[in-house]
């Protein structure tokens, strides 16, 4: 037969497996099997065996050298014997198959993984091996047997099936435990993992610790075949699918040149917008960047940088992970639709799939409109790269992060990127709040566009909104306090360059750090004429980056701007004049810019512009939290900001 051993084994089961030709090959398979039950790899079983060769192989029966599951070894021989046995029920084939199965069971580590060689061979061969689908092949065999399908014509005893089921479950547990977490988020798998630490490890010189598109895809396909997946298995699949979507490469095609014998003698990557998606064999553990290695073990950025021997003799890219993405929608429809939060008023968002939702927006979108009580969305640590919007019909929602430092919502829209005309700024927000009675707590909200113009991190355009212990990070226009409502900021860190706190709302900042990143303006209030209070900063600290020496407390975006600083510490970067009129001479008569008993080198009341004010002791009581934000000013009822 003019086919490779792999193609012969994997061809569709047909009457050919009952022919004399198939029987001759089966006899070869029996001869190559070692007494321990496994087979060596890379043997073309279909090739005739001479008398001398047969004698040599019989002498090797007792040897355990080179017995493996690598490159399809043992798995392929068992599958072939099963196909022949269906037509020729020879007890020798059954005995050899069952001996092979026993070998697989013996080779398993207690943690559920399998080494590349068993008995163990020194070196990287002891690692838990996903490389070339070694472990996946084993688990596929065990799954068919434990499920008592008709895939294999040979069925072991019930006692053996029980052992197979235990081994399969341990193997799946190992897969779940070895799934790599990147910045706290489950991703994919390496081709090999340390048998003790379970972490990605090196194999050959050019097989460095990495994430593997090829091996990971077949692991996911195996997990998707499990009929009743646990919550952990579902998480693993969802996370891996997200990773595969993230790491697919488009617009690139691999071209190969072959010699007369069909051997690849050259490979090169070509730009092609119509090329199907591909995935790199090796990707960096920290950021998924593809890399390539020659036998010297030195990472290269492109395939063209390594020698021809490794470049042409190794599969550096794969297309078949697309099969996972193609099958995922139907799997998700079958298994994920039942995953609804048990308590719709308390839900969890987690990037690693351990919560009720993967994304913050998904959790918001599935929240009850106009709820009769508060909905708490707890967000576990992770980097959430998404634009988030709390709609008007989503009041009484609390977005609570696991920690301010590590629960990060980030996006990078900016004015010219949006490109919607003069109002493009207002579309740039990373987080937009249009819902009343919102609480944001323990979050970092970032716009990472850089110093490139207007780019909002947080917009609040609603009433009775509290922002507690949050980082608001950006450059120009970091925080937009929009609308006519009241807002409360407590224990926050707010940074920016120009007008990085702006808008017309009444906003009270308590115990916040306001950090300037360059010489410019902190506030740009646009307080409505009839509004009693604009911005009140109480017990805040105004700081700056190095080399920042000239920062104004504010300038009027609209001429009735109101901004006061009370008991704040002003560092030396604050401009002695304090305030700027934004070239609006009339604003000097209509704004209300004032301070009360500030301190620090930046507090120079005698040098302030003449049209600003120093609040008297008798007037400062107007700026209590209750008087500025309260709605029950003359009663003992709890205010909205007191129930945080």
TrEMBL record:
<keyword id="KW-0063">Aspartyl esterase</keyword>
<comment type="similarity">
    <text>Belongs to the pectinesterase family.</text>
</comment>
<protein>
    <recommendedName>
        <fullName>Pectinesterase</fullName>
        <ecNumber>3.1.1.11</ecNumber>
    </recommendedName>
</protein>
<comment type="pathway">
    <text>Glycan metabolism; pectin degradation; 2-dehydro-3-deoxy-D-gluconate from pectin: step 1/5.</text>
</comment>
<dbReference type="InterPro" id="IPR012334">
    <property type="entry name" value="Pectin_lyas_fold"/>
</dbReference>
<dbReference type="InterPro" id="IPR033131">
    <property type="entry name" value="Pectinesterase_Asp_AS"/>
</dbReference>
<keyword id="KW-0456">Lyase</keyword>
<dbReference type="Pfam" id="PF09492">
    <property type="entry name" value="Pec_lyase"/>
</dbReference>
<keyword id="KW-0378">Hydrolase</keyword>
<feature type="domain" description="Pectinesterase catalytic">
    <location>
        <begin position="346"/>
        <end position="629"/>
    </location>
</feature>
<dbReference type="InterPro" id="IPR012669">
    <property type="entry name" value="Pectate_lyase"/>
</dbReference>
<dbReference type="GO" id="GO:0030570">
    <property type="term" value="F:pectate lyase activity"/>
</dbReference>
<dbReference type="InterPro" id="IPR000070">
    <property type="entry name" value="Pectinesterase_cat"/>
</dbReference>
<dbReference type="Pfam" id="PF01095">
    <property type="entry name" value="Pectinesterase"/>
</dbReference>
<feature type="active site">
    <location>
        <position position="499"/>
    </location>
</feature>
<dbReference type="InterPro" id="IPR011050">
    <property type="entry name" value="Pectin_lyase_fold/virulence"/>
</dbReference>
